[in-house]
What we know:
The structure holds two protein chains of two kinds.
Chain A: E1 3-7, E2 10-12, E3 18-25, E4 34-39, E5 45-51, E6 58-60, E7 68-73, E8 78-83, E9 92-100, E10 104-108, E11 112-116
Parallel strand pairs in A: 2-11
Antiparallel strand pairs in A: 1-3, 3-8, 4-5, 4-9, 5-6, 7-8, 9-10, 9-11
Chain B: E1 4-5, E2 9-12, E3 18-24, E4 32-37, E5 44-48, E6 52-53, E7 61-66, E8 69-74, E9 83-89, E10 96-97, E11 101-105
Parallel strand pairs in B: 2-11
Antiparallel strand pairs in B: 1-3, 3-8, 4-5, 4-9, 5-6, 7-8, 9-10, 9-11
Amino acid sequence: EVQLVESGGGIVQPGRSMKLSCAASGFTFNNYDMAWVCQAPKKGLEWVATISHDGSSTHYRDSVKGRFTISRDNAKSTLYLEMDSLKSEDTATYYCARLYGYNWFAYWGQGTLVTVSS
Amino acid sequence: DTVLTQSPALAVSPGERVTVSCRASKSVSTGMHWYQQKPGQQPKLLIYGASNLDSGVPARFSGSGSGTDFTLTIDPVEADDTATYFCQQSWNDPLTFGSGTKLEIK
């Protein structure tokens, strides 16, 4: 069974950093591109970043470019999102997702809530 | 960015047929996918590539469309289908989602 378990969320002050992790199991992690998707409270979904199966290629939405870094450790089957210079508008639940085919999100984790507030 | 427009809410009775629409601001070919999100849960893939049912999804769900106009159909609707339904396109960068359609079962 595919499982994606996020961790690392919490309350953080504006301008500070936070690192999210996503532990994957039930599939061969290094075969799949992975992504982070966020959802602000009571709002819709927004793609944040994508990383290729081998970590050689990354893509970001414009609003997080230069502030967020997606990475992976295939030996540990773990996906990461390092978030710097956090802003109040980054407040959201962050989901880890496994991509498939032509970039649809085949599996999702349960999400971890990040609250940026002073 | 490709904007995906969905109607905000629908209400139907069990046993009825419901269609959820998604219109793209520019062509996405068949790069359209549908997700179901129940309250307090993560989204779940229903349909990929506009019309392909994901494994384990009941055949009551179907998808159609290409280009800019897409539809998710549930027939017949059941009480358990209460959820918000999101469309997502992957044809154009960046990947974008619709704002979601909240489905209420009367």
